[in-house]
User: What shape does this take?
Amino acid sequence: MKKILNRRTFLKGSLAGSAAAVSLGRSQKAMAKDFEGYPESMGVLVDLSRCVGCRSCEAACNEEQNLPAPEKPFNDFSVFDEMHHGQKRRTDETRYTIVNKYDVPEIDHPLFRKIQCNHCQEPACLTSCFVNAYTKTPEGAVIYDSTVCVGCRTCMVACPFYIPTFKYSSAFNPRIMKCIFCYDTRLKKGLPPACVEACPQEALTFGHRKDLIRVGRQRIREGKDQYVDHIYGEHEAGGTAWMYLSPVDFEKVGFDTSVPKEPILNFVKDFLAIVPMVLTIWPALFAGMHLLATRKDGIKKQKQTEGETE
Amino acid sequence: MRSTLMAALSIMIMMAIGALSPNQSFALDAEDAPESVELDTLSDLYEPVTFDHAMHVDAAACVECHHHTTGQQPVDPNCLRCHANSGEADSISCGECHTAERFSPEDLKERSNPDLYHIDKPGLKGAYHLNCVGCHEEIDGPTGCQDCHAMTEKGKKQFQVSIVPPKEGSKKGVHE
Assistant: This one.
């Protein structure tokens, strides 16, 4: 029986074809795609069991980054009870880092968690930015260039940790505000960020990311029951330069434990890979098909006109 | 500042050692310790601390702060593996082992030595606070920042203490 190419079988075939293209693209990329971060990347290990909520890091950050004056002084601890729209404090255009307090029933004292940009190894903000305003430096910082930013705020949607914030007070000169790991003033000279230097408890440990993982493992091993057996940020979102140790389950101190253990980019990589194919192959393919399909009509028409003239 | 502290401490140690007769044990004695120690190496945002050593000698054993350096046996079995008989150290000053230049490029370079055992040794500021605050919490000692050291003018500027917070209810953008 002669196989008839109808619309349904054609669509089926093309679907199978593009699926093959996608899986092929995936396997080809799999060889080179696993970027495990810059080998000399620096990082910070935040130990929640050491933080006493003194807010020295917030004060140091404000001064170092020339941020606007806060509403309350940095030695005012009533900020820990503030609720904004039912949420604890978060980073915004006036503060790149904040410390929040958590009362956890199994521990007789409150726990404090410092929040700032985690400086992902494969940042979602960077990959989502269509003007390349973000750069991941070999030292580990995710920095931002306001001169090219168009203010689309896609990075704010892309970030799994809700870190980049928009300077709404200057919407016509768009600017994203977020922690830059003190890159310009400190990190590129090999110095620790201002918050780390200010911390009295060494709750923030600065060092090579790979060394910090060893330190974290050692604290978990030697601290016996002091920590949960997990370094948040070792694998979250594909690995982050800033990592956390906690004495209680991470979700009890405000962490999003549903953040995937692979770069956010992986979820769109396959789709993005077929975009060029769609844009280049499809127009030629369909134009060709159209020409083939209408060729008969053209010939018929030509014959008709030839017949008329005879 | 660091050198004056070191000098003061080493003089005290020498005096302490000089007071011992040659046949006595090699461990340092609490009675030979200084009455008070001025902790001023790190003073910047806060004033130096005059540490009442004599008072703390009654509250804690030497090893609780000085680890294995005073010649007594450490309590932690993990430390005992190497320091059961390591004896009295040349200097028992905190800053001798816990660097005031924590996270400096030199410090990080030292720490990337693959043969280093103490990879997680706190710097001087961390050592002071972790040891002091940890114990003070347990025995209800003072734990507020300014309970131990007053803020300097520079500290007041950095913490922006002159800001008067807006009155409750008049805060803009704050709900609930």
